[in-house]
UniProtKB/TrEMBL annotation, chain A:
It comes from the Bacteria. Residues 36-148 form the NADH:ubiquinone oxidoreductase 30kDa subunit domain. The lineage of its organism: Bacteria, Bacillati, Bacillota, Negativicutes, Selenomonadales. Belongs to the complex I 30 kDa subunit family. The keyword NAD applies. InterPro entries: NADH_DH_suC, NADH_quin_OxRdtase_su_C/D-like, NADH_UbQ_OxRdtase_30kDa_su, NADH_UbQ_OxRdtase_CS. NDH-1 shuttles electrons from NADH, via FMN and iron-sulfur (Fe-S) centers, to quinones in the respiratory chain. It catalyses: a quinone + NADH + 5 H(+)(in) = a quinol + NAD(+) + 4 H(+)(out). This is NADH-quinone oxidoreductase. Keywords: NAD, Quinone, Translocase, Transport.
Automatic annotation (TrEMBL), chain B:
This is NADH-quinone oxidoreductase subunit D. It is an enzyme of class 7 (translocase). It comes from the Bacteria. It comes from Pelosinus fermentans JBW45. NDH-1 is composed of 14 different subunits. Subunits NuoB, C, D, E, F, and G constitute the peripheral sector of the complex. Belongs to the complex I 49 kDa subunit family.
Length: 155, 365
């Protein structure tokens, strides 16, 4: 149901991608950490492989950890009723991650939201624009370094 | 020589059928929709950023203001997520009260859907009827917590107060009257030929496409996909109740309407069962005033009237969430608007918008 058996069931995936993916966290909080350049391969594998069939991208978000930004994908397999968390990381300055819209079109708005609020650019996204804030807005408010004082208003 | 070209029409943000401040930029070829691009953000309050400077308990009232016609569900999703992080056990009676309140709220929310769908398509009586019955539910909530819309009734470890003695008789009267009310709506709306022809085969979304584009809730189930979190990953005590998940076949506006009408019936049945099983006892566990969940993260989701409402919380061990993200079903469901509207007549855009039932308070967060 959740991530409990993640270690045993992901052996095949690990064998295939070796260096580019590892399991982080413990028990319910465990997740697959993928390197950005292999991310799409791994997501596609998780979606199409018979033993995983993660056909739903339930949730997509990102967290600013000051040294890096972590993009978090919560996947769900409707046929097998299991969940998995996939993560990838990018730098603070050159924040770029390949877009998952080619695998799950549902990533579209969610990636735009992350771009808007955290400033991560998703390469290959069909329409990467701000979604909640107005186009002229300065900065990305959900970054920890964002100064709330001026609330984004131009002086 | 006759020259034809498309033109652009702004629908909203101040439009009665957009259910809040949604702007849809319509590209029209005569009366036919070529593109319908939603623009949101007019109600964006930065709630996720605010969460980072509030304590865990202080954030509960903010959840009321997301999907403000089903606030009980928002409270429940958030409280269960935090309870999962800290490991709080909720007393039995509180679990039942939570079920009763959230299912009543589902009925209230679907009544609003029904009323606003009716008035959007020109049947203003439907609106009056929907709001009339919803009033009965709001009176019940008022009895339990003193609020009609922003409840903050569900708290960490239980609910804010036990129900007063007049609550159960009033609820029983409502449950007795509800089948007749529902019957009346079916006679008024479901049997209406105009409504049928406006909704049937309008805005069809296939099950496969609905999954890909991230639809959840009644909109997904209307396309025939059996995904109801109360069944696939039962949270709280949902595994104790006997109810069915209504599914549609075609995925058109009509199916989305029928699925919600059937869901109201199922919700009423869950409330009846919960009322029978509910034990006496306390409604609140012993919970510290200021919570400090251990460092880590949790994603937890519940079935809200509009779909999968998920909370992703990252804790660094402090008194404020390090990061809090809300997966809002209304926001993700809106993605389908453009393709569902393409090729329809302009008058049918409101039918698609109404049956997707997105709520802007939640979209903009």
């Amino acid at each position: 149901m959740s991530n409990q058996d993640i270690n045993s069931s992901l052996a095949e995936l690990q064998a295939r991608y070796l260096e580019d993916v590892k399991i982080i966290g413990e028990e319910a909080q465990s997740a697959l950490l993928a390197l950005p350049h292999r991310l799409l391969d791994i997501l596609r594998f998780l979606k199409t492989n018979e033993s995983y069939q993660f056909n739903m991208l339930r949730n997509l978000t990102a967290v600013d950890y000051l040294e890096y930004i972590e993009i978090v994908y919560h996947l769900y397999s409707l046929p097998l009723r299991q969940a998995i968390t996939v993560k990838t990381r990018c730098g603070m300055e050159d924040s770029q991650v390949p877009s998952a819209t080619v695998i799950w079109p549902s990533a579209n708005f969610q990636e735009r939201e992350i771009y808007d609020l955290l400033g991560v650019r998703f390469t290959g996204h069909p329409d990467l624009r701000r979604i909640l804030l107005r186009d002229e807005f300065d900065g990305h408010p959900l970054r920890k370094t964002y100064n709330i004082g001026n609330a984004g208003e131009r002086r | 020589m006759l020259k034809t070209e498309t033109f652009t029409l702004n629908m909203g943000p101040q439009h009665p059928s957009t259910h809040g401040v949604l702007q849809v930029v319509l590209e029209l070829d005569g009366e036919t929709v070529v593109q319908a691009i939603p623009h949101m953000g007019y109600l964006h309050r930065g709630i996720e950023k605010l969460a980072e400077s509030r304590t865990y308990a202080q954030f509960i009232p903010y959840t009321d203001r997301l999907d403000y016609v089903s606030s009980m569900g928002n409270n429940l999703g958030y409280c269960q997520t935090v309870e999962k992080m800290v490991g709080i056990k909720v007393p039995e009676r509180a679990e039942y009260l939570r079920i009763i309140m959230t299912e009543l709220n589902r009925i209230a929310s679907h009544l609003i859907f029904m009323g606003s769908l009716a008035i959007d398509l020109g049947a203003s009586t439907g609106m009056m009827f929907g709001f009339r019955s919803r009033e009965r539910i709001l009176d019940l909530f008022d009895m339990a917590c003193g609020a009609r819309q922003t409840y903050t009734y569900i708290r960490f470890g239980g609910v804010s107060a036990d129900i007063p003695s007049e609550f159960i008789p009033a609820l029983q009267r409502f449950l007795t009257d509800f089948p007749a009310m529902l019957d009346e709506y079916h006679r008024l709306l479901t049997g209406n030929e105009i409504l049928y022809h406006r909704l049937k085969n309008t805005g069809v979304i296939s099950g496969q496409r609905a999954l890909e584009i991230g639809l959840t809730g009644p909109a997904l189930r209307a396309s025939g996909v059996d995904y109801d979190i109360r069944k696939v990953e039962p949270y709280g005590i949902y595994d104790r109740f006997d109810f069915s998940v209504p599914l549609g076949q075609v995925g058109d506006c009509w199916d989305r309407y029928i699925v919600r009408m059937e869901e109201m019936k199922q919700s009423a049945s869950i409330v009846t069962q919960a009322l029978e099983q509910m034990p006496e006892g306390t409604v609140m566990a012993t919970v510290p005033k200021v919570l400090k969940p251990p460092a880590g993260e949790v994603y937890h989701s519940i079935e809200n009237p509009r779909g999968e409402l998920g909370y992703y919380i990252v804790s660094d061990g402090g008194v404020n969430p390090y990061r809090l993200h809300v997966r809002r079903p209304s926001f993700i469901n809106l993605q389908v608007l453009n393709e569902a509207c393409q090729g329809l007549l302009i008058g049918d855009v409101v039918a698609v918008l109404a049956t997707l039932d997105s709520l802007m308070g939640e979209v903009d967060c």
